[in-house]
Amino acid sequence: MTEKLNRFGMGAQFVPAEALGLAELGPLKQLVGEWESIVINGTAGVTPSGWNVISVPHPDGFIFEVIPYKENLKFSTVAVSAGNRGPVLNGKEFDQQIFGLFYEQQIISVCDTDFCNTRGFGNGQIIHAETGLMLFITNFNGGFDIARLGTIPHGNAVLALGKALTVPAPDTNFFEVASAECTHLDGSPITALGYNDKIIGVPQFPGFAQSDPNSFLKTTLDGIVGKGSITDMTVLPMSTKHPDATGGILNIPFIQTNVTATSMDAIFWIENITGGSETELLQYTQTINLVFPATGTVEPIIWPHITVSTLKRMQAVSELGAVESLKASAAENVMDTPGVPQL
Questions:
Q1: Residue range 200-243, pLDDT digits in tens
Q2: Which residues contact 157 (CB under 8 A, 6 or more apart)?
Q3: Which residues are within 8 A (CB) of 232 and not within 5 positions of it... i.e. 6 or more apart?
Q4: What distance in Å separates the CA atoms of residue 233 and residue 231, rounded to the nearest whole number?
Q5: By the 8 A CB rule, do 39 and 49 touch?
Q6: How many Å apart are CA 116 and CA 101, to the nearest integer?
Q7: How far is CA 274 from CA 21, 84, 148, 233, 278, in A?
Q8: Which of 19, 115, 257, 315 is the most buried (most CB within 10 A)?
Q9: How far is the CA of 262 from the CAs of 114, 179, 290, in angstroms?
């Protein structure tokens, strides 16, 4: 594989992630490993920590879906190094060096309502799968030192850019509103059509604010931090829409014609905690704007597709423990789920 990669530009090679430090992986270094959804125990029982809200076409105009989920997110222990040739100015060659991590994401519904089962995303159904690369661009980056290259089997490819930052000792009030309400193409609110009644109306799940999923991230973080504190936090903001840079989403023709994914904004927070019920968390919020007219109308409308999740690092297990865990998982999948393919 390395020989094949070396045929492109300055070449690319696989490197053990542990052999790379902050100079090579920068803010991505702490991502290395496997992360899983946390379990939130409360007076009402177990509450999922991952949530998906999306509006999709329906004979009644559109239907608003709220899906609780669990997740496995893996950042490979094998990193990639690549170089890009640049110009030669005054006899000096300017080359760019990039390091990155492969990632795999699987999201599985934990919804057991009649609505979820009828819609085809009942408990155990895979509702999202994604593979890609998280890149740290070490030099000549135009102000963007991180990039996300993602591919989704629906037929989408994403390039999102951002600039990482570190926040020392933050509180838990850093989450901005992530509105699930639909808007006109210019971003102005829709007031006359009544579309947002389904979104801002009665919650489909008590305790989850479906019109602003980010508020659930704060509630979750508050519960975990408790009387403790966040000692430091790495923030990875990424967007496909930068007026002074490339980036974007490519769709296959069917998606482009019917329900177009036009932009994506995502923020990952890596939080180190002292005195809480967890010592390390990975939280994220992601909004993908979908554009389509409600059934029976012609005006294109922006419908935000929002996912939020709180994850913890999976603990290493012994070889024997891993085998037993796999056996138990296989038995469970046979009985209760259609199985989870390995990407």
A1: 989 999 889 999 999 999 999 999 999 999 999 999 999 999 88
A2: 149, 150, 151, 249, 250
A3: 166, 167, 168, 169, 272
A4: 7
A5: yes
A6: 34
A7: 24, 41, 30, 12, 8
A8: 115
A9: 31, 17, 6
Are 325 and 293 in contact, with CB atoms under 8 Å apart? no
Quickly tell me which residue has 């992360």 as its tokens.
35
Place of tokens 């993908």: 288
Phi, psi of 18 (to 5 degrees): -70, -20
DSSP character string of 274-337: ESSS-SEEEEEEEEEEEEEPPTT--S-EEEEEEEEEEEEEPPP--HHHHHHHHHHHHHHHHHHS
Q: In angstroms, rounded to a whole number, what is the distance separating the alpha carbons of residues 199 and 63?
A: 9
- How much is the CA Rg of the chain, to the nearest whole Å? 21
SS3 247: coil
Structure-token match 């020392």, residue found:
168
**Which residues lie below 8 Å from residue 33, measured CB to CB, with a gap of 6+?**
74, 75, 77, 313, 314
